[in-house]
């Protein structure tokens, strides 16, 4: 029996490694077969999964019996012909809760030597109050960093910033601002996007972009045109470091986050 979650993961991996916005079943089926996820049948089994609706973000723009286009599982459902916005794009939602407030994100943490850019969605309440990234003690970001680099994380935020600088890590968020009523990404409305491409142009040593969580990945892949990134940059979707992400254990998160350090 096919492991659909593994198939979806490998499709995402293929899209990321080849910097593709979408792929056809015949092309990616060979990759799936190579990794033991599907039989080597020219895409026949994959097409059946597509017809059964088991693969997210897959469609036939020309109608039935026409070519399939498969996109990243974290890509927001939009028309394939819709261009991605590249800078401070404002997306207006139709329903806004009257009790929501506008949340402004933090300035990026980076220097001229930064190589890894970790993008969250938008800072939570504690981070905004303290003006410190990942300040909520329930967030596992700093535990993940400690494990990745086999170092203890200092308590003082200024020392933590020096830790990031030492390991060439930059921090920012995909969203510049949004309306929301809690720290949950699911409560986000009326958003604007940070100028990620402009940031990359000013930090040419960036070689990996890590997207911290499904929402960050969704917003990035929907509103940032990956084709406009320098060709050497690798984009990696990562499980959220938030403690509310119970789909992954801490050890499993660490295993996935290690991918940002691969050459």
From TrEMBL:
The keyword Hydrolase appears for this protein: yes
EC number(s) recorded for this UniProt protein: 3.2.2.15
Keywords, in A-Z order: Glycosidase, Hydrolase
Leading EC class: hydrolase
Origin superkingdom: Bacteria
InterPro entries associated with the record: Hypoxan-DNA_Glyclase, Uracil-DNA_glycosylase-like, Uracil-DNA_glycosylase-like_sf
Keyword Phosphoprotein attached: no
Location of the Uracil-DNA glycosylase-like domain: 111-257
Pfam families in UniProt: UDG
Gene Ontology terms for molecular function: DNA-deoxyinosine glycosylase activity
Protein name: DNA-deoxyinosine glycosylase
